[in-house]
Amino acid sequence: MDRVIMHVDIDAFFASVEQLDNPELKGKPVIVGGVGERGVVATASYEARKYGVHSAMPAFKARQICPMGIFVPTRHERYREVSNEVFKMLYSLTAIIEPLSIDEAYMDITKVNMEPLECAKFIKRNIKEKVGLTVSAGVSYNKFLAKLASDWNKPDGITIITEDMIPDILKPLPVSKVHGMGKKSVEKMNNIGIFTIEDMYNLSKEFCIEYFGKFGVEIYDRIRGIDTREVEVLRERKSIGRETTLKKDLSNKEDMKKYLEYFSEEVSETLKNKNIWGKTITVKIKTSKFANHTKGKTINYYTNNKDEIYKIAYEILRDMEIEDSIRLIGLTVSTLTENKVEQLTFF
Ligand code: TTP
Ligand code: MG
């Protein structure tokens, strides 16, 4: 194998956390979310899945098919916290990690000094011991196959897909397993009598391009086990900020505080939408005489909470010596991360 790519995905994530925190729920059909009248299920424990309950199912339906199901509300902050612990463990092995969601990631473990199977076992054992959850791991020589592998033997599975297993292992799979094939594409394929990947081998590259547009070539390659996409480490986003040039110059700090309060809220909103956190807060001021004052403060944890951002911004403003009235005020949060876990020193 040239590259060694692993895909890790926590089993029944939200439900497993609920079972972890409340041992009475262990081994029981736990259904997370959908507590309200018209809610939908976020996820279900494997015990509940036996009855057919799954993510995005309307709660009333879940209740019908699994009347003994134990419904619990979601606790997103707790899931984020657990996710951070899991990622921290992963980052202790390599920095080449691409988080895909709160509970799954690709890792390029080519340079990790362990046999792939040993590495997968190591990760599973560590997450079980340190966090208390089971994950499924898939290893292969590209992302598409690694993800397929982690899904192969869920929960608590390890699957390795090697080159000699291609194309046999792919042939019987339904076309919906091809990464990039949406519901519409699957339907279109089925309509022309194509149900499995093996059926798709009859499609020429030209046909795929015509049929699937710009993803045509990718789809043509994927079904043959070809996927050259790299594991993409977090793109560094530099900062998120807001500033405004005032209609009327301000000279008292009380009025300036109101702007910072408003900007804190806006910036916090943006950070939350992007699912990122920052730990440097900077206040920028331009005076009526066009002098710039910029002062930043780096705290020792990541935040996207509006009150925390405002508190720091206010302290900065309070300590600023401003002689003239001001014509512009701004607030920026930088030193950003997509994962609240402080990146460790890597080897
Ligand atoms: P998944 O990894 O898709 O699901 P899962 O971890 O519950 O189960 P498994 O991986 O064993 O198949 O999603 C991770 C979490 O994301 C899941 O626990 C709950 C949440 N989620 C939703 O809230 N709504 C959804 O529609 C999906 C798919 C997931
Ligand atoms: Mg999962």
Automatic annotation (TrEMBL):
Keywords in alphabetical order: Cytoplasm, DNA damage, DNA repair, DNA replication, DNA-binding, DNA-directed DNA polymerase, Magnesium, Metal-binding, Mutator protein, Nucleotidyltransferase, Transferase
A Pfam entry, by short name: IMS
Family matches, as InterPro entries: DNA_pol_Y-fam_little_finger (IPR017961), DNA_polymerase-Y (IPR050116), DNApol_IV (IPR022880), PolY_HhH_motif (IPR024728), UmuC (IPR001126)
Protein task: Poorly processive, error-prone DNA polymerase involved in untargeted mutagenesis. Copies undamaged DNA at stalled replication forks, which arise in vivo from mismatched or misaligned primer ends. These misaligned primers can be extended by PolIV. Exhibits no 3'-5' exonuclease (proofreading) activity. May be involved in translesional synthesis, in conjunction with the beta clamp from PolIII.
Active site residues according to the UniProt entry: E104
Record lineage: Bacteria, Bacillati, Bacillota, Clostridia, Eubacteriales
Residue numbers marked as site, Substrate discrimination: F14
Protein family per UniProt: Belongs to the DNA polymerase type-Y family.
Every UmuC domain range: 5-182
Assembly information from the UniProt record: Monomer.
EC annotation from Swiss-Prot or TrEMBL: 2.7.7.7
Protein name listed in UniProt: DNA polymerase IV
Cofactor: binding details: Binds 2 magnesium ions per subunit.
GO-annotated molecular function: DNA-directed DNA polymerase activity
